[in-house]
Write a structure and sequence with these properties.
Number of strands: 8
Order of helices and strands: EHEHEEEEHEHEH
Keywords: Cytoplasm, Hydrolase, Protease, Thiol protease
Pfam families: Peptidase_C15
GO molecular function: pyroglutamyl-peptidase activity
Helix content: 25-40%
Family: Belongs to the peptidase C15 family.
GO biological process, one term: proteolysis
Shape: globular
């Protein structure tokens, strides 16, 4: 009859995705390509049941100077202005960043309340040992994602991807954005996840696009 199979999840999931522009030492950021092409890519593939792909935004690779834009992006997802961002379901923020030295994908478990930039960000800011959110206490304070990182990693590894869990998102812009996003998610009842990807030289573009689509499938299945 065609109606067999598991029922659709009771709670719809909307996933909003961000990537970054180029930055010092990385003239082409793979996450800009992944996130810019994701809607088109999953449209061809078909979205997992119960999942809506919300906004796909490219962030400036900057900390403090890009905060207003980051919060505008985060806020727009829960503002209900966008029909795709219905607050009746679950909202997950999925952030992609590049680790140019990596050989595999990394699902980040946490962010640390420390900004120590090894080089200036794209707006020229180079903090050293600064707390990201002073109200959270000192620079050793961490925030964890409420998503099951181990489970997500295992599911992706089973699909054949080179993937690991990580407890260290660095101290640069990726960690800075993740920390703010985790705090925002906690305050608004959403969830947030950061994923580091290698350069396209290490894992080619097609595999990385497949990985992003598979990750959406895994997130949809967590319901």
């Amino acid at each position: 009859m065609g109606s067999e199979g598991p029922p659709a999840p009771a709670v719809a999931v909307t996933v909003h995705v961000t990537g970054f522009k180029k930055f010092h030492g990385v003239s082409e950021n793979p996450t800009e390509t992944i996130v810019s092409n994701l809607k088109e890519y999953v449209k061809k593939k078909g979205l997992p049941k119960g999942l809506t792909l919300g906004s796909c935004s490219i962030l400036e690779t900057a900390g403090q100077g890009a905060l207003a834009a980051l919060y505008q992006t985060l806020q727009s997802a829960i503002g209900g202005k966008d029909s795709e961002s219905s607050t009746s379901g679950k909202i997950i923020w999925l952030h992609f960043g590049v680790n140019s030295g990596a050989t595999r994908f990394a699902i980040e478990h946490q962010a640390v309340n420390e900004a120590t930039f090894r080089c200036p960000d794209e707006l020229g800011w180079k903090p050293q040992k600064l707390p990201i959110i002073p109200a959270d206490g000192d620079i050793s304070h961490t925030r964890q994602t409420s998503l099951p990182v181990e489970e997500i990693t295992k599911a992706l590894a089973k699909m054949g991807y080179e993937v690991m869990t990580s407890d260290d998102a660095g101290r640069f812009v990726c960690n800075y954005v993740y920390y703010h996003s985790l705090r925002f998610a906690e305050q608004n009842g959403n969830k947030s996840l950061f994923v580091h990807v290698p350069l396209f030289l290490t894992i080619d573009e097609d595999t990385q696009m497949q990985f992003a689509a598979s990750l959406l499938e895994v997130l949809a299945s967590l319901n």
